[in-house]
DNA sequence: TATGAATGAGGCTTCATTCAT
DNA sequence: AATGAATGAAGCCTCATTCAT
């Protein structure tokens, strides 16, 4: 019984490198938005530019990937809060605000993820689905208006990102106003 | 009788040039967002780059000016709708939506105008003041909640711009949701 | 009667710069073929890369221009030798050989000029016309075969360029052989 | 009886790999000239880049090898036509034309093979020898001029490659003209 | 004061070659 | 010996800004 599972490297170096790059990009974007140089990202990830380009053949592709990653996180969070039909949505939006506010520049990218200019497949669908689940129960309980859709919440988040990114005011107020608009009546 | 006509000229050539540049910039930004080249703007304005730089010493300054201009227009509109205490705000936000939606890329710039990253003087104050006036009467009439401030509306507009720019969904719904959140109760 | 012609600058600085770039490119190409870096050309011309790119928006365009220039010179030479119906062609081909041999890398570019992969307008036509003129009289005098066309000579020159560029042998022999093939009978 | 089958294998895997690479390179060069990437060649050959580099330590070495291969083929063809002292040379040059014309990009490489920029050993010698043989008999028969050397024919082929590669005209005419020049008188 | 040519730092991307597995 | 991920030096080109005329 020699631990055979130990044998299968859980992730190859290549995979690990991809993650390092993604992680580094996320960190840099968080600080300065997505106008960071590719070489910066590479340096921060501790790899050569070539490697970076092997993983993400284009600047655009990298940004996309980061956006996807963040969208996935938002989806994940939505699922977490789905258990609380009474206050889930409110807690979710506040949570999103905290995350965005703590991650200067994430909002910059997240807007793209929310937009649908070009059909950006799965992750976006996943996020909308998660939000749909989140408001499903709440709608039954009457916590949110019956006409509210996942797309509505999506737009609110998109707006929230903009508000935070531009420091347009106290984003907590924005969240409360939006929640008010989503409530029945 | 000292050259009266020279006097009469309401605007000097210099002033006229400034306006032509601003106008051209607005038009170009409307089409393609503010990633237009300075030389493009100059060409469209029918002046040399040098002249452009004389009027706006920096790309940044030009964008700022355009943003200011738009902010002024929004302020002007706010004043127009201030006369209607019952539906003024609703009509105003819908109007803003129409304008932003019709002017691809204006939203891009307007977000900056709404934000306060760097305190950008008068125009912003003017806009906030106009909005304050707009909601002042409404608040008295109970059309909007008593706790609603001009800053809140400002944020809603900022969000609206983002929603439109990113085609994040049906912006009319966004407006209605926001209006719902601004109503009392 | 103040020399008014002195007024019209014969060539603007801009035009002069274009020539300097072209000249520099020609010199560098002569040494090392057309795999020189754009920045090298710029430096050699004493201008910034930006200027170079203003004159020739693309590496390709620059090479094209140089090729054109050389083709024009060959055309000019053809016209010069057209006056000698008996030995003009022979003297011309020998002259071309000298020029190509003395200008390492010109042959590299001239091949393109002779080829017709993409219809490269005027200059090529001009060269063919000049060659046609060159062989016209000779054909009448019976110095070259009646079936010989400008295109034939063109091909010979193209081959000559290759022979010289690749140091494939004694190019003077190549010229004599070709001349033999162009003679009547 | 020491593993006889292992012995029998006419070529080791390593040898087979070398051939696969060479074959792939030839095919790719034929399509697109020798500006193909090393990784392309490797992929086409079904081996890793590492293997490719083990066989040909340098891009240059690979091209050289392909050139050699083609030169060997031309030599082989020359020997085949050597049996026909009357029309051998003509048939040979036409044959070479056909081959080059059918193999876009081979001409690109063949020029190098014909050139002697760097003394490139055996194969070139072999080719010159084969051509010498080809014209030897013809010279005796008076089909080609007495002063014609293998080097002359070599140059003609080099030129032919250039003519074809640059689509400089009807290469069949070029061949006929050259043949004319090689004939006695 | 207007012009537009010139500037050159900086950004993105490619690809021959190396090297750890 | 084979593999293919990693490397990073180049190279092409853009564009905000300056400056001579």
Give a short overview.
The structure is a homotetramer of 185-residue chains. By secondary structure, chain A is mainly alpha-helical.
Describe the model.
- Four copies of one chain form a homotetramer.
- Helices cover 71% and strands 0% of the residues of chain A.
- Chain A contains nine helices and no strands.
- With 185 residues, chain A is an all-alpha fold.
- Chain A has helices at residues 13-32, 38-45, 49-55, 59-81, 88-102, 106-114, 121-141, 150-165, 171-182.
- In chain A, helix 4 runs antiparallel to helix 5.
- The first copy, chain A, folds into two domains: 12-57, Homeodomain-like (Arc Repressor Mutant, subunit A, Orthogonal Bundle); 64-185, Tetracycline Repressor, domain 2 (Orthogonal Bundle), CATH 1.10.357.10.
- Chains in contact: A-B, C-D.
- Chain A binds chain B through residues 111-112, 114-117, 148, 151-152, 154-156, 158-163, 165-171, 173-174, 176-183, 185, and chain B through 111-112, 114-117, 145, 148-149, 151-152, 154-156, 158-163, 165-171, 173-174, 176-183, 185.
- Chain A binds a DNA duplex (21 and 21 nucleotides) through helix 1, helix 2 and helix 3.
